Amino acid sequence: VISCGFCGELNFPPEFKFGVASSAYQIEGAWNVSDKSESIWDTFTREHADIISDRSNGDVACDSYHLWRRDIEMLVELGVHFYRFSISWPRVLPTGFPNYISEDGVKYYNTLINALLENGIEPLVTLYHWDLPQRLQDLGGWTNPHIAEWFENYARTAFELFGDRVKTWITINEPFVVCDMAYNTGLVAPGIIDPEIAPYLCNKYTLMAHARAWRLYDKEFRHKYHGKISIANQLFWFQPLTDEDKEVTELALENCVGRYSHPIYSKKGGWPPSIEKTIHDNSRRQGYLKSNLPVLTKQEIEYIKGTYDFFGLNHYTSRLVRKAETGEKLSPWPIGDAPDFDARLLVSPHWPKTSSSWFFVNPPGIRKLLQWLKKNYGDLTVLVTENGFPNLGGVEDVDRINYYRDNMHEILLAIKKDKINVTAYTAWTLMDNYEWMDGYKSKFGLYHVDFTSPQRTRTPKASAEYYKSVIKAHSLKVPHIIRVNNPSSCSR
Ligand code: GBH
After folding, report:
1. How many CB atoms sit inside 10 A of residue 192's CB?
2. Any idea which UniProt keywords this protein has (predicted)?
3. Residue 387 region by backbone torsions, left for phi larger than 0, else alpha for psi between -120 and 50, else beta
């Protein structure tokens, strides 16, 4: 509970912006309308239905392809400054390549972008939120070096089509999930398990793809459109269990955060040195002739370094880290432990669990991460591009309000006490949607969606009212919410 003496500190800086996020596969539906081709998620949910908790898929999802008008209404109700959504690559480029551009696909995004702007809401567009055209996967997907060029061509198409109105771009959402999560566990598309080689190839080529798109924008589009472009990384906060676990914790952070951020944001560029060494030693021990972490040449290091306009931070949860005991059995990274680093990943009994098996609540984690980023990469402008909370449903979602309040409060502390330049907050997510392998069970929405109704009826939860009042007040010092008892409302 925040005492009222602190209330003056609860205001956000005047320029601070609030938004909400979604992604194409999770909300659009319309998986096979017009000339859209299949993405790896269309394939994965069919071939691996057993992995999805309720065997569901995103064929219809929230049907935002047809119901986008209601989405706009909700965004207006919330009063958000921006809406972060993603473009489906196979909807715009059904062949995966720019030899053929779908008129209907382009029309959908033009209509959405124009409707947002008419309502004074900025579009913040993610180019890739996990729905790769299946055809490109058949050619190796993110493990094929050519994908850097394929992605650049897709990015060019998007910049040419929408760049006059879209001023903030995210290239790739969470390469950590696309590479580490995907190829270590097979629990997300493309469902291939190949932990020793694939995550590292994918790591390099997502970075190269990102860098190409950034450089393309910088060279050919920035001077006329004056926008910003970066990548969105998913960061766990890792905290040492005891003082003796500090070193292994730092390695775990470098493996999760550094492997996708150091090459872009550090002064020196390239892989984090500690990671380079560990993976080299592991690869040799496993009998390979050299490190499975692909080399970044001097030229590539320079090419990737500095390709950012801000730090896009997605954050949800934390882990405690301790050194594994000799012979201790470890489960795979990143869903269990970090066997490559002899690290056990644990959670504190003080962190409430949620409806998602991987998610335990530890609000201080986000501020610690912001401090870690500052310490390692210097002063950055940070956009929190995702943060949110899952439960099993219900519109009186006090748990979600608490999560949002506590996380936004930690961000305020980072801004005011640590002098970190966080300029935006994005709530994940606008409405309940297709939560990947958790299907429709785990719900992150500010709006409830009735998935049994053809209209996919959307109803605001208490958290929507809370978020709306925070945005309106530009402060966490918000008037008492009638539906729930908000302990930090400072209205006493
Ligand atoms: C974000 O990823 C995504 O960008 C968004 O699409 C998604 O809806 C949202 O979070 C909520 O999940 O194998 O059980 O240990 C968050 C990244 C997703 C990474 C879950 C870790 C662990 C799953 N995290 N994952 S598990």
Report:
1. 13
2. Glycoprotein, Glycosidase, Hydrolase
3. beta
* Backbone region of residue 79 per phi and psi (left: phi > 0; alpha: psi in -120 to 50; beta: other values): left
Taking the C-alpha atoms of residue 307 and residue 361, their distance in angstroms, rounded to an integer, is: 32
Residue with tokens 């065997």: 55
Dist CA 228 CA 222 (whole Å): 8
Nearest CA to ligand 1 atom 7: 435
Q: What are the beta bridge partners of residue 421?
A: 381
Question: 492 is written with which tokens?
Answer: 């006493």
Residue type, 289: L
What is the tens place of the pLDDT at every residue in 150-176?
999 999 999 999 999 999 999 999 999
Summary mean pLDDT of the chain:
95
Contact at 8 Å (CB) between 460 and 450? no
- Residue 315 Cα to ligand 1 midpoint, Å, equals 10
Place of tokens 């390239």: 270
Ligand 1 atom 13 nearest Cα: 335
Q: Are 40 and 131 in contact (CB under 8 A)?
A: yes
Q: Which of 27, 234, 391, 437 to mutate to test the pocket of ligand 1 (most atoms within 8 A of CB)?
A: 234
E strand spans, 399-472: 421-428, 447-449, 458-460
Residue 36 is given by DSSP the state -
Cis amide leading into 429 (omega within 30): yes
**Cα three-residue angle 75-76-82, rounded to 5 degrees:** 55
Q: Which amino acid is at 461?
A: K
Residue reference for tokens 């993610």: 126
- Give the number of the atom of ligand 1 that is nearest the alpha carbon of residue 357: 14
Report yes or no: 404 and 366 within 8 Å, Cβ to Cβ: no
| Region of 193 on the Ramachandran plot (φ > 0 left; ψ -120 to 50 alpha; else beta) | beta
Residue in 100, 101, 225, 251 with CA at minimum distance from that of residue 163: 225
Q: Are 397 and 460 in contact (CB under 8 A)?
A: no
Q: Is residue 358 within 6 Å of ligand 1 at its C-beta?
A: yes
What is the tens place of the pLDDT at every residue in 170-199? 999 999 999 999 999 999 999 999 999 999
Please tell me whether residue 406 adopts helix, strand or coil conformation: helix
As annotated, the active-site residues are 174, 386
Please name the amino acid found at residue 89. W
Strands (E), 153-227: 168-173
| Residue 187 CA, closest ligand 1 atom number | 13
Other Cβ atoms within 10 Å of 124 Cβ, number: 26
The token duo for 157 is 């198409």
What confidence score (pLDDT) does residue 9 get? 87
Distance between CA atoms of 13 and 1, rounded to whole angstroms? 22
Beta pairing partners, 128: 172
